[in-house]
Amino acid sequence: MVNKFKTLYRHIIEEERKIPEATGQLSDLLSDIALACKVISLEVNRAGLIDILGFTGQTNIQGEEVKKLDKYANEILTHVMKTSGHTCAVCSEEEEFFIPVEPLYEAKVLENKYICHFDPLDGSSNIDANIAIGTIFSIYKRKSLKGPGTLEDCIQPGINQVAAGYVVYGSSTVLVYTAGKGVHGFTLDPSAGEFLLSYENMQIPRKSKTYSVNEGNYNKWSKGMQKFIDYLKEKDDTTGRPYTSRYVGSLVADFHRNLLYGGIFMYPADAKNPKGKLRLLYEANPLSFIIEQAGGKASDGKNRILDIVPDTLHQRTPLFIGSYDDVSLAEKFLSEYD
Ligand code: AHG
Ligand code: MN
Ligand code: MN
Fold first, then answer.
1. Residue 90 in contact with residue 78, Cβ under 8 Å?
2. CA of 214 to the centre of ligand 1 (A)
3. Using CA positions, which residue lies closest to atom 8 of ligand 1?
4. What pLDDT digit, counting tens, does each position of 199-243 carry?
5. Which of 70, 88, 164, 293 has its CA 20 to 30 A from that of 77?
6. Is the pTM of this model over 0.85?
7. The domain 210-337 is classified under which CATH number: 3.40.50.1220, 3.20.20.210, 3.40.1390.10, 3.40.190.80?
């Protein structure tokens, strides 16, 4: 039974106290992110009321339309991260370049030892339809020794993450994070303004009965991918088929449901997106760190996502993520037919 009065802040502090060399900076940083997400959550809930919906008319560097809430979420997270005193660089899906951050406290330059990446608003095409959207974040330690962070600090493989998490703005607002010691979930109590522990040590079922993919892309997929989906749809009681299909179109929402109930989410390479659609640093890496901590698996179809060494900030990757056995099976189909 979960202690229903354990706040996110208390949980983070208690976890960090277990590490003798911890300085409390990561706890501070995670609390700052949670605060920014509470503010975003309020805006998401008020979106229809204050005429914040609609397009800004601008496009982000991926060439996609940016909506007002994306811009707002990006601004608030960037601001909070830059002023936290703990970051030397901030990277956002909505920004073309990384944002170097000057140390706030000159005497203690290593205070700003973290890099923060985020997808400020994931699933943004769903905003107008009252469908769950979210924020994804990821934290690394810097490699350079002092001053503002460098590009090299910002493009590290996912295996170097020290913490990662996401927030789903859904029927309630839920924050899920890992700092490398299990995955923990918190639900926002709007009256108290606090995230309260609601899921401790989350584990994804090893095998599932659910797949999440944009099946409209079927004709653009490789043979292996088509065969895999055909297989999941066949009837066979001994292997628990057919699987059920669930696809929200907000990665965070699809991921969160699959984490709770089991499932495999896929965004493969296709004829239109030969490198996949999702971003390695802002989407795939943080969720891959979480899924591995929860006993699941994340792959680009061949290789472990967390081992990919990035070349650029906005690099894309195919993504197969979720229940361990289902992701392994997808890899098997791709290696056999592609
Ligand atoms: P974002 O809103 O941050 O650009 O991400 C959208 C992503 C992801 O959330 C979702 O799973 C995927 O795009 C949906 O893509 P399709 O519409 O091609 O299925
Ligand atoms: Mn996204
Ligand atoms: Mn986004």
1. yes
2. 10
3. 251
4. 999 999 999 999 999 999 999 999 999 999 999 999 999 999 999
5. 293
6. yes
7. 3.40.190.80
